[in-house]
Design goal:
By secondary structure, this protein is of the alpha+beta class. It is 47% helix and 13% strand. The chain folds into two domains: 8-133, no CATH class; 149-279, no CATH class.
């Protein structure tokens, strides 16, 4: 029985368009009118053809069976991710505008993803791309292919500890503070996400946001902090204003992937961040062992 069993007749046009476009781009995805698994049949056909033309050894026979099973799993992964994405599309989605090259690269990476949680992540990427609500570069897709469920959960937590200025800023001030430790964020977690390529962490450097315009506005869910140049935390030099922004930034891949994160408001974080922004001093990031 297939992992994905969806009645296509009730689907909106964008969902059908996505499945058609993806199938045309990579070949072999089940279309709305023909949802089936072909990998096993193709594998059997290959074995029969091989036996009919050459005498194969038991080892070669097993190799062919293994390849057929692997391709069958890849097929199942790609179809499940596609249908999960299609089920999320709005009536305004334009999946047919996704480039064939992007789709092929997407499935080249996504075909290996078999876990439910990470398939949901990949489906979110495909859905966002179909909605033209976000873009995901080839490098971002390559990085995502190396992220496991624990990495994804840690990154999502970082996104929940992020302030929105003109750009999103993961606000990491001091790792000895409970607001981070209580949410599972420590130096090892940050260092791992840095190595993966979704954030950059600067333990010995305090970063600043700069702008020619005032005031600074820091938003966190429904909360907003307005920082004018009268506050001592604001520096002025060369016609620009700057304010401390902690010790971390998103990479390009991190910014793109943050658009699909299901963030949750962390109790007390806005008050904590507001206090640190207005009264915090420039210091090195303290790392606990």
């Amino acid at each position: 029985m297939p992992l994905v069993n969806i009645e296509m007749g009730n689907w909106a046009e964008p969902a059908t368009a996505l499945i058609n476009h993806a199938s045309n781009a990579v070949g072999g995805l089940a279309r709305p009118w023909q949802i089936r698994r072909v990998a096993r049949a193709q594998g059997d056909a290959r074995i029969i053809d091989a036996k009919a033309t050459i005498e194969i050894t038991d080892l070669e026979h097993r190799a062919i069976l293994r390849h057929a099973r692997e391709e069958g799993q890849h097929q199942d992964n790609m179809e499940r991710i596609t249908y999960l994405a299609a089920s999320r599309l709005s009536a305004d989605a334009k999946p047919e505008q996704i480039s064939v090259d992007w789709l092929r690269n997407f499935y080249r990476n996504a075909r290996h993803i078999s876990g439910d949680a990470m398939q949901q992540v990949w489906a979110s990427v495909l859905a966002k791309k179909s909605e033209q609500a976000a873009d995901f570069s080839p490098i971002t897709l390559d990085i995502l292919s190396k992220i496991d469920e624990d990495d994804a959960a840690a990154f999502e937590k970082i996104c929940s500890l992020t302030l929105q200025f003109d750009t999103a800023v993961p606000y990491i001030f001091s790792l000895v503070d409970n607001i981070y430790l209580d949410n599972g964020i420590n130096f090892d977690v940050l260092n791992n996400l840095d190595k993966i390529g979704v954030i950059n962490i600067f333990p010995s450097t305090h970063l600043f946001l700069s702008s020619k315009n005032m005031p600074f506005k820091a938003r966190y869910f429904q909360n907003e902090l307005i920082i004018t140049k009268q506050f001592k935390c604001v520096r002025e030099a060369g016609g620009k204003y700057s304010i401390g922004s902690g010790h971390a930034t998103f990479t390009r891949a991190g910014r793109q992937l943050s658009s699909i994160c299901q963030t949750t408001e962390i109790p007390g974080f806005f008050d904590y961040a507001s206090d640190r922004l207005l009264h915090g001093h420039v210091a090195q990031l303290k790392v606990t062992e």
